[in-house]
Amino acid sequence: MYAAFVLRPPRGAGATQYAAALPLAAGIAVAETVAAWLPEGVELRWPNDCDWRDRKLAGTLVEGEGTGGTLDVLICGIGINANHHERDFPPDLIDRATSLRAASGDAIDLAELALCLALRLATWDDICRCQGMAPVRRRWLELSPGARGCRVVVQTGSETIEGVTEGLDERGGLRVRCEGETRVLISGEVLRVRQTL
Predict the structure, then answer these.
(1) DSSP 8-state symbol, 105
(2) What is the mean pLDDT of residues 67-89?
(3) 3-state secondary structure (DSSP) of residue 132
(4) pLDDT at position 196, please?
(5) Under a CB-based contact definition with an 8 Å cutoff, are residues 110 and 101 in contact?
(6) Is 138 exposed, middle or buried, given 0-12, 13-18 or 19+ CB atoms closer than 10 A?
(7) Whose CA is closest to 74, among 146, 125, 147, 39?
(8) Taking the complete model, does pTM exceed 0.90, yes or no?
């Protein structure tokens, strides 16, 4: 299932904080939605993936559009693997991806899934607007055990970073301790997460 939501940021100083919080909030909305079908094992992986038992189940992408230096809209794209069978995934993804149907054993009512997603996103959109980043960051960390104390490999453009996660900074960047210093990553893809000893 693919969906796109067009959201208008608040005007003024709150727009920047809202834009920083919304990608995390979208991930929370997805995780809470799919947890209705899969109550155990749903986790967020920075910056925009939702996994079930280390296999990708869903993803989000938020992009902004604006004119004259003003952010006018944010487009939140969400994809959830809903009714795929295991055989539907190509061989190179079979061990890294899954769907709600494959994981739960039941066909998914897409209308119900879409409604649940829209309601969860509306709730978290409201939290972003009214309370800012702090509650979003707190909930995101609850849903992402790999964001603290785990050894990760992160691809950021042309650079590969290996280190241990130390949570999120106040803007939602991933904190990674590597080579004696803590770096804050604002974009990239976590390729591998392993619990530290």
Answers:
(1) S
(2) 93
(3) coil
(4) 62
(5) no
(6) exposed
(7) 125
(8) yes
Q: What CA–CA distance (Å, rounded) separates 132 from 135?
A: 7
Phi then psi for residue 68, to 5 deg, are: 55, 35
Helices within 81-190 (DSSP H only): 100-104, 110-131, 133-142
Contacts of 44 (CB under 8 A, 6+ apart): 27, 28, 31, 50, 51, 140, 143, 144, 147
Helix (H) or strand (E) holding 57: strand 55-67
Q: Based on C-alpha coordinates, what's the Rg of the chain?
A: 17
Looking at residue 87, the DSSP 8-state letter turns out to be G
**In the block, which residue shows the tokens 């042309």?**
158
Distance CA 77, CA 55 (A): 20
* Structure tokens that stand for 156 in this block: 């950021």
